[in-house]
Input
Amino acid sequence: MSAGKVMLGPDGNPLLSADGKIVLADDLYPISLAHTYDPFFRRVDYVYPGCAITEQWNVDFGASMSNELQAYYIVNSEQSTGVNCAARYNISENTIDWARVAKVEVFGTLFATAWIAWPEGLTCKITQSKNNNPIPNGSTVKDSWDTAATFTAAGVYPVKVSWDVNGVEPTSLEIALMFDADTCALESDLYVQYNPSGVGVRIVYNLATA
Output
């Protein structure tokens, strides 16, 4: 962490040195977390009126060849397609002083495209979890993980996903992207893509601003 940040003591007050001066953080505190990134993918295609949106939750995740997370919701008179993705950040061996870490963050951009008008009531969402290795199958990523962000219209959105760690080192951080529908009642042709930024996993220390 660069100078200009004040280190806090156990009581939450600025930490003082022996001569009574405020102690500043320094470059011994890295702000990027060493990790590996494992993306996962699942997809179902049907000839309409078969409903891939329903069946996608019964398909196991497989390894994805792309770092981008994608989700499709396609329902029209000819086809039905459901896609959702997930990724796991595996925390590598590191020199982080975890007792001083408040949270970790991942930044990215979501691109949402609607080839047919986005239907009212349909939500795309990004969910998150911590220490869930392996990635669970079924609808757990939709129903049980915390919601990090929701989207109900086409556009380009900056997204920050944040995990509270409060001084305890996590073993893994998870993120998933999906449309949360589980029926084909709404006709549309939607595609979303979440691209994690190149800065990786960022550390937020329990430090007050000078």
Notes: The chain has one domain: 36-198. DSSP finds two helices and twelve strands in the chain. Residues 47 and 79 are 5 Å apart (CA to CA).
